[in-house]
Amino acid sequence: MKTYVAALALLAIAACNTAPATQGDYKTVLTFGPGEETKITEAFLSLKDSSSIELKEGRYRFDNLSLVQLKHIRIKGAGPEKTILDFSAQSQGGEGIRVAEVKGFVISGLALRDSKGDLLKINKSENVTITDVHTIWSKSDSTSGGYGIYPVLCSNVLVENCYAQGASDAGIYVGQSNKAVVRKCKAYKNVAGCEIENTTNAEVYDNEFYGNTAGFLVFDLPDLSQRGGHVKAYNNHIHDNNERNFAKAGSFGTSWGVGNAAPGSGVIIQATSDVELYNNRILNNNSSAIILVSGFFVDGKAGEKINANYFPVSKNIMIHDNTLEMGPAFPEPVYAHHTGKILVAIEQKLGARIPMIVYDGISTNVLTNQQLQNPDSICIRQAGQNLFVNVNALQMESKDWRPSTDMTAFNCQ
To answer: Where in the sequence is the signal peptide annotated (predicted)?
Structure first.
């Protein structure tokens, strides 16, 4: 009897760790090959619940594809090097594949290329699995779409074994969602490699984010549907993110957008809460390994935006046991970037190489008019030299401005 109970317990644990997408057979399986794009487009528009579309090896050319209000759906290719969906000749629509209000959605084994807008957008859906999907723009510049892999307003999301390149915002983005995992992915030559924005209960691990403007971002922005938090990022390799910021003007380059990410940023944490960053290798991001800032850093009026879904000061942040290394000098693109110039000014004021962890020093004291040492529970446990600077950003325009490298108040055991 004990053995039986133990076996049931193990099965229960295994069930909790399986992929979130609905599993099981599909009532309808439709198989297509290259040259059947018209049939494929019609199939997407007429698809019924519990259907699988399987695409053979080859290159397919589409304007766009759309799935709406369905259950138990799969799109399956022969592998991202074999099944390629090319959106470069779009004459209408901006997105490559758009999925909305689908419960139990799986997409795997495909490469999506060169749409005008986002390559794969999944909106208001549940139990989503994105695996072995590549999203690629041939050029990494402002003509690229904003997001490669883009689940938003979703629940139970798994993104694994994916690759994203060339996005003018984020290669892999999870926004305004609940319960998300990003693992074993790579992101290269995007503005942001991966971004978790206004999302709760997310884990990001075993990924490689490299060659971007900024490697990994955890953000909360105002005026969105929910507040984010409870994010863990661990066992990631975040390195050599030193490229120029090519975010679009307008929606992607506003005062709140990823256009603020300075070239050379490894990790940026902004205006969110309950984040744990640990056991990562954050290497050769040569403006900062980790930046921790409030919404006030990008908008002095951030306090006016406080509501149930937004609080501008980062709270309950734990940074520990990461491997941090930086090169001896800033990357060249930082000198032409507005936030980059601030980092250069900090280094000049210190008269020594900028430390690896940059904290803006703007706490809830600015809202409470108190003088507490660490009111927002910022916890740093890191070994090494030249680790930390408190920018004291509210004093930057004063002739008495002095950044501080004293991290005593933020040391934790």
So the answer is: 1-21
Q: What is the pLDDT of residues 284-313, one digit of tens each?
A: 999 999 999 999 988 888 888 889 999 999
* Global pTM exceeds 0.70: yes
Contacts of 361 (CB under 8 A, 6+ apart): 390, 391, 392, 393, 394, 404
Cβ atoms 79, 132 nearer than 8 A: yes
- Output the CA torsion 178→182→186→187 (10° steps): 10
The answer, yes or no, to whether residue 24 has pLDDT greater than 80, is no
Q: Which of 256, 233, 393, 394 is nearest to 317 (CA)?
A: 233
Is 385 in a helix, a strand, or coil? Answer: coil
Q: If 0-12 CB within 10 Å is exposed, 13-18 middle and 19+ buried, where does residue 309 land?
A: middle
Question: Of 105, 137, 114, 134, which Cα lies nearest the Cα of 61?
Answer: 114
CA distance 162 to 119: 13
Measured between alpha carbons, how far is 34 from 231 in angstroms, rounded to an integer? Answer: 41
Strands 51-55 and 192-197, sheet pairing: unpaired
The DSSP secondary-structure symbol of 168 reads S
Which residue in 173, 158, 161 sits closest to 212, CA to CA?
173
Question: Which residue from 200, 204, 230 is spatially nearest to 216, judged by alpha carbons?
Answer: 204
* Tokens 């954050």 sit on residue: 282
Residues 404 and 393 sit within 8 Å (Cβ to Cβ)? no
Buried b (16+ CB within 10 A) or exposed e, 69-86: ebbbbbbbbeebeebbbb
How many Cβ atoms sit within 10 Å of the Cβ of residue 396?
A: 15
Distance CA 213, CA 193 (A): 8
pLDDT at residue 61, as a whole number: 96
Q: Return the SS3 of 48.
A: coil
Write phi, then psi, for 277 (nearest 5 degrees): -120, 110
Taking the CB of residue 224, how many other CB atoms lie within 10 A of it? 17
3-class SS of residue 141: coil
**Sign of the alpha-carbon torsion through 6, 11, 12, 18:** positive
Q: Report residue 163 as tokens.
A: 């690759």
Residue 219's identity, in one-letter code, is F
Show Cβ contacts of residue 99 under 8 Å, excluding neighbours closer than 6 positions: 66, 67, 68, 105, 120, 121, 122, 123, 125
